Amino acid sequence: MSWSAYGLRKDWNHAKDEVAPWWGKNSKEAYSSGLANLATALANWSSSRSGKRKGPKVHFPRFKNKRTRLSCRFTTGAFGLVGADRRHVKLPRIGLVRTHESTRKLARRIEAGTARIRSATVTFRSGRWFVSFSVDVVRSDPAPTLSESVVGVDLGIKSLAVLSTGEVVQNPKHLEHALKKLRRLGRQASRRHGPDRRSGQQPSNRWRQTQARIARLHAYVANARQNGLHKLSTTLVCANTVVVVEDLNVAGMMRNRRLARHIAGAGMGEFRRQLKYKADRSGVRVHVADRWYPSSKTCSACGVVKAKLRLSERIFTCASCGIRIDRDLNAARNLAALVEASSPSCGATENEPDGNPCQTRTARATGTATGRPPREWRGSTSTPRGVDSGHVLHDS
Ligand SMILES: [Zn+2]
Question: Does the global pTM surpass 0.85?
Answer without folding.
Answer: no
